[in-house]
Amino acid sequence: MRELDEMVLNIADSPEKFHDFINKYENFILKSASKISKKYISKNDDEWSIALAGFSKAIKEYDYKKGSFISFAELLIRRNIIDYYKKQNKYNSEIQVEWIEDAAIMENNSNNLKLEIESITEVFTNFRRSKRKS
């Protein structure tokens, strides 16, 4: 296992090796993201790019003396995805201002329409009354 850890130290500064290493470990990244999110993750999901960012950061920041690269990478992937979900939950609980504005406009339009109908009804009523008197 330490062979992999040494390999990571050698690829951090080489863009070509870096890219090849990420391609080689795509399944690990997807599996880690799926495990953390508790659902199937594909490359089309946001979690994929977030996990990929965590894995890339793990390659750049890995310290051989502190333990296994795989454990470190999984930890950073986990942190990134958890942070992402926290941010998503923050936005889901907020009411969007546009919705409030749209509701106010619709209510205002509804009131305007109601006033127009009442006004035209009054005009017709007065017209009928004036016709009857003539």
TrEMBL record:
Origin superkingdom: Bacteria
GO biological process: DNA-templated transcription initiation
GO terms assigned for molecular function: DNA-binding transcription factor activity
Domain RNA polymerase sigma-70 region intervals: 22-90
Protein name: RNA polymerase sigma-70 region 2 domain-containing protein
